[in-house]
Every structure is written in C-alpha cells, then in structure tokens.
Amino acid sequence: GVSPALLYALIEVESAYRPRARSSKGAQGLMQLMPATARQYAVTDPFDPTANIEAGTKHLRSLLDRYDEKSALAAYNAGEGPVRKYGGVPPYPETERYVAKILELVDAGQNE
C-alpha cells in the first residue's frame, strides 16, 4: 500500500542502498530503522534487507495513514512529536532537505 517510487526514494536518501548502513543516531539498514521501530515490527536483524524493508514500509504506511505525504516523511525522519508540535514538517533544515530530496527523486522517477 505504499508507492514503490516513494520507497525507492526513501531508501536512496536514508542509506544509498547500503544494507549495512548505520547512522550516528543508531538507525540501521536500508530504511534506517531505529532500534525501537525494529522491535515494534519484530525485526530481529535490522541488516536483513527483506525484514528491514518490510518493517520500514509498514512504519511508513502507518505514518501515511495519519499524515499527508510531506508530514509522514518528516515524521519518518524527525519523529512524530515534532510533526505534531509544528502541525506538519518541522522547521529543521535537515528534515526540510530530507523531505524535499525524497519528493524530488519521486518526481524525477515519474518523469522518466
């Protein structure tokens, strides 16, 4: 129930398709799952590409069910708290660039 183009763009921005990617904040794998998110979706190995993508997709779907696309992407990046606080994409330069880059990649993919 999530656009493949959106997933491809998110994975590109999150990990550049590196299954063993780790962030300084503890996110892991292709879709950069935080440990709590991995546990929420019963992922035992966040570096397993299939498990990571399945959990990340479910998580993104749950955000899309609650927010518009930009806000859901912002929540994926910055968490739901800031999205609720600001009523949409929070004014964080990293999150604003993140959302813009994903949407740019989705748009470029649809225009190919």
Cα distance spanning the termini:
22 Å
Tally of helical runs: 6
Portion of residues in beta strands equals: under 5%
Low-confidence stretches: none
- What is the typical, i.e. mean, pLDDT? 96
Major β-sheet annotation:
none
Structural class: mainly alpha
Helix content: 55-70%
SSE order in H/E notation? HHHHHH
Q: Using only CA atoms, what is the Rg?
A: 13 Å
Described by the principal axes of the CA atoms, the overall outline is: globular
- Number of E strands: 0
Task: State the oligomer.
Answer: single chain
List keywords for this structure.
single chain; 112 residues; mainly alpha; globular
Task: Describe it.
The chain is an all-alpha fold and 112 residues long. It is globular and about 35 Å long. It has helices at 4-15, 35-40, 49-64, 69-78, 80-86, 93-110. Helix 1 packs across helix 6 (93-110) and helix 3 packs across helix 4 (69-78). The chain is built from six helices and no strands. Helix content is 62%, strand content 0%.
